[in-house]
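Supplementary Text 2. Reproducibility record for the structural model of the 339-residue chain.

All settings were left at their defaults, and a single model was retained for analysis rather than an ensemble. We include the record here because the model underlies the residue-level annotations in Supplementary Table 4.
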Amino acid sequence: MVKPIEDVRAISRIAYGFIASKALFVALDLDLFGHLHGGARSLEILAKATAVSPQRLRTLLTSLVSVGLVTRAEDSYANAPASDKYLVRGSPAYFGEYYRFQINRQLYPALTCLDAGLAGNDAGLMFGGEEGLMADSRQAESFSRAQHAGSSGPALLLARGFDLSGRRRLLDVAGGTGAFSIALCQRNPELTAVILDFPNVVALASSFIAESGLSGRITTIGANALSVEWPGNQDIVLLSYLLSAVPEGDIDQLLVKGLASLAPGGLLIIHDFMLDDDQLGPDLAAHWFLLNLALNTTGISFSAAELSKRLALAGFTKVSARDHIHDITKLVIAEKALG
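Retained model, structure tokens:
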């Protein structure tokens, strides 16, 4: 349980938190963490590499040091361990494009419309809401490329930690650029997948699928998942980051469509932001649900326990839940009865 705040300085840290976010985004745009990769660098070397004057760059570096993204020893700066692993372009675990593009250029500005979201004012939302964001081909491409970077880690974690032996057909609903389908097919040689998402998105997915060498095993359907019939006889239906992005009234419809799409004994896997069952957090998941209100005024926050009740009412059996990305997302798994 989070301890209630007792000091005004703690309130100030929350109020000023957006500044640290922007410091991270600017540093990524400058490839500052890349310039620090491989060892400490002096301010003068970094100023030349980034084309930022030393006095201004020192201000940025001090902000990064204060939140632990960068360290300083005497007159030299170095990456923190996590920064060196996740924020250096070209590194295997690089996560920066997700922060640079989706968070910085789309979701960060969308938060300025949170007042409209809370008021239920759809006309006041940036991009006209999430569907409008995905209808714009340029915005959809930027969002999807960034989401691919952000989903690759969770997808690999799911592929490594979930036994899909004997299951051959996967329907990845709102599967984006295919990060989850690609990871699961790479891990399970007998698995084939179909990605169902908006036309602007699956057009981009095809290039990622081709790069992975899986064009023969992963196909796409370009459509709104709510308005098209889903392929049947599936062994697995995956809903990743979907239920948190749709109006509350669509959640039960998606669960029913998932049940109809599955073969007897098939699995529905839901991966999404979820609150703890006591509704007291965690903070990162709670913040994500709040952010979604700036894109979708009819969305809701939910816990694994709440989804489990909806799944039972939809006709699923053997519902279970577990953590996936600590403090952010969970998995809820449900089975279609054999009889």
